[in-house]
Specification:
Blueprint lengths: L14 H7 L8 E8 L14 E10 L4 E2 L3 E4 L9 H7 L3 H5 L4 H18 L6 E4 L3 H13 L10 E4 H8 L11 H8 L12 H16 L10 E2 L9 E2 L9 E5 L7 H7 L5 E10 L5 E9 L2 H8 L4 E3 L2 E7 L2 H8 E2 L2 H7 L5 E6 L7 H8 L12 E5 L5 E9 L2 H8 L4 E3 L2 E7 L2 H12 L26 E5 L7 H8 L6 E10 L5 E9 L2 H11 L2 E3 L2 E8 L1 H8 L3 E3 L2 E3 L25 H4 L20 E2 L12 E4 L3
Parallel strand pairs: 1-5, 5-6, 8-14
Antiparallel strand pairs: 1-2, 2-3, 2-4, 6-7, 9-11, 9-13, 10-11, 12-13, 15-17, 15-19, 16-17, 18-19, 20-22, 20-24, 21-22, 21-28, 23-24, 25-26, 27-28
């Protein structure tokens, strides 16, 4: 069924008046739009981040049932390579696309031609109508954002023909499973099977489906357009909020300096809920490159998942499903002070870090200056404090617009008193996380040093009487190491097994073993080097006690030599392990009394397997003393 071509209005008639007087109901003019990219087609349109290469459109006047001229325009893509699927379906070549106009020129032509056709058919505001939501949400809006193009307002609302079809035919298959061909088939429409011009058959068939739907019971047909949000709206989230897990995703791999607006731009075309971007922080309060994003419905979430490994600048971003509980845990808060601070809408939030502890609102306002006023003056500042009221040196500030925030960011690393101040973009979720972090107890509470026997002192000197194990499975236990060493385990000194932990208090895959002599250490290394443990081969190399102590205190040991630990202050180490004493020539009587006589004899022995002891310092220690020690009986 091919729609009739448009006829010019007879002389002396007024098409606008005729259409207004037409008794048949219907919306304003519809622009039926079809598009294709150089990559995937159909339900995967836009999922591979390829550029738009084709637009086909035709205007329909629902009240008079007239149609305009069908237009087809090629679009020059930055990457001229066509996927096999696109090349086969479209018949296009890279040469034909190279002669086409760029996207901005095609959009200008589109607006001009549509305005002319609409005026010819009676005038009035028009709406776009597409087959599904991918073309606008997954192709046009993201590509325009990448190329810094401003789309006309008409591209921010549209009708989804699949949903309109499902409104009139609710017993048909779900809207997401419909296609142009299945809609025409369900309506019993005869289509032009000889039409082989890519995109033309689709538009003609969509027009035929629209005219058939308009001839049926209209009801709510073409009355509720789909809306694309033009900007992301910030807002608070409460711990009491219930968030549907079908609306949340996790984005991973974000640049550390990215803001909520950058994340919203990555998901351009999709509707993010108000306050729906929550940047995640690590234990030190800094961004860890992840964010949780909450969308307005599950359909938007499903489209967001198709942007897995799309790019933000030169970095690709991974997108996974997440839960509502995870979002509330990151973005939710209970503080009334924070709720009042975040209650102002459409505010840009900046974070100030490194403030003098004596700084007050007047000092911060003076630092920012009159050229970038804070919204509400002192009321627009939120200082972060410890539970006992002590300042942390952090604060948040509200600004009324992007221009004022940009002016404030130019004060980055400016000085206040004798300290330089860092300024960063922030989010409502980050405000909640920072306040929650200081208001609540740490996730891993600081444990007091365990009550242990007096450790056997580590020998000083550079004799290579130790071995270093690298590449251990993270699940390896003391017993696994003893079994791995085999007969060499009998030559381990008391207190001689040290497993190195990372900054999260988990095994790092390294361990140090103190042997009874340099000869025993060399023999163990030669016997066990690159021997397998749980499907992993383990490197075993001799080292000195000094090198072992250096690593256990937080330093690094590499090919270029030893690098000092971040801090060597004794106060940063557990009391029991504050320093390493030099080994005396003779074992003191007090020390010898702690061990059975068999532990002091050179005869071979099989060590027992007591429970490993671990010390986990608090956040202030930065885990410079990261190891567990094995104490044979």
């Amino acid at each position: 069924m091919t729609p009739p071509p448009p006829q010019p209005p007879p002389s002396g008639t007024n098409p606008a008046a005729d259409s207004a007087a037409d008794p048949r109901p219907g919306p304003g003019p519809l622009v039926v739009l079809f598009g294709a990219t150089a990559g995937a087609l159909g339900p995967d349109l836009g999922s591979d981040e390829t550029d738009l290469i084709l637009l086909v459109w035709q205007v329909v006047e629902p009240r008079s049932r007239q149609v305009g001229t069908l237009h087809k325009s090629l679009v020059r893509a930055e990457a001229a390579a066509l996927s096999p699927q696109c090349r086969e379906a479209s018949g296009l070549s890279a040469d034909s696309l190279a002669r086409a106009e760029p996207l901005d020129k095609v959009l200008q032509q589109f607006s001009q031609l549509v305005s002319g056709d609409v005026a010819l058919l009676g005038g009035g505001p028009y709406m776009l109508c597409t087959d599904g939501q991918q073309l606008l949400r997954q192709v046009l809006h993201p590509e325009a954002s990448r190329k810094n193009l401003v789309l006309p307002d008409t591209f921010f609302s549209f009708y989804d023909l699949r949903r309109e079809f499902h409104v009139q035919h609710p017993s048909s298959r779900p809207a997401r499973d419909l296609t142009v061909a299945t809609m025409a088939q369900d309506l019993g429409l005869e289509t032009d099977a000889t039409e082989d011009d890519f995109g033309v058959w689709e538009v003609k068939t969509m027009v035929a489906v629209i005219l058939h739907l308009l001839d049926g019971p209209s009801g709510q047909l073409f009355s509720k357009p789909e809306v694309v949000k033009q900007k992301y709206e910030t807002g608070p989230c409460s711990k009491a909020d219930v968030v549907d897990s079908e609306t949340v995703v996790r984005a991973r791999g974000l640049p550390w300096q990215s803001s909520d607006q950058d994340v919203a731009r990555f998901f351009k075309g999709l509707n993010i809920a108000r306050g729906g971007v929550a940047l995640c922080l690590n234990a030190q309060g800094r961004r860890n490159g992840e964010a949780l994003i909450r969308f307005v419905d599950s359909e938007q979430r499903d489209l967001a998942l198709q942007r897995h490994k799309h790019h933000m600048g030169v970095r690709y971003i991974e997108v996974y499903k997440a839960t509502g509980e995870e979002f509330v845990k990151i973005a939710g808060g209970t503080s009334l002070e924070v709720a009042r601070f975040l209650s102002r809408e459409d505010q840009v939030i900046l974070r100030l870090r490194g403030l003098p502890f004596s700084a007050g609102p007047a000092d911060v306002l003076g630092f920012l200056g009159p050229e970038c006023p804070v919204t509400g003056g002192a009321e627009g500042l939120l200082f972060v404090r410890h539970p006992d009221g002590r300042p942390t040196g952090d604060a948040f500030a509200l600004f009324a617009c992007e221009e004022l925030a940009q002016a404030a960011l130019r004060r980055h690393k400016g000085t206040l008193g004798k300290r330089y101040i860092e300024l960063f973009r922030s989010t409502a979720a980050e405000v909640q996380q920072v306040l929650n972090r200081y208001a609540s107890s740490p996730l891993l509470p600081t444990l007091t040093a365990p009550l242990l026997p007096i450790p056997f002192p580590l020998a000083a000197g550079t004799g290579r009487d130790c071995v270093r194990l690298r590449g251990l499975p993270y699940t390896a236990t003391i017993e696994d190491i003893l079994s791995f060493l085999g007969e060499a385990a009998a030559d381990i000194r008391p207190h001689g097994v040290h497993m190195v932990l990372n900054q999260q208090g988990r095994p790092s895959g390294d361990a140090f073993i103190q042997m009874t002599s340099a000869e025993r250490a060399l023999a163990a290394a030669q016997r066990c080097h690159k021997k397998a443990m749980k499907e992993r081969y383990v490197e075993v190399v001799p080292c000195s006690t000094e090198e072992m102590s250096h690593v256990l205190m937080g330093g690094t040991l590499g090919r270029s030599g030893m690098s000092p630990p971040p801090c060597k202050l004794p106060c940063l180490s557990p009391p029991t392990y504050a320093t390493f004493q030099a080994t005396p020539t003779l074992i003191p009587t007090e020390t010898a009394a702690l061990y059975p006589s068999s532990a002091l004899l050179p005869a071979a022995r099989v060590p027992a397997a007591p429970t490993p002891v671990a010390y986990y310092p608090g956040p202030a220690t930065q885990l410079y003393m990261n190891y567990t020690a094995y104490y044979p009986r």
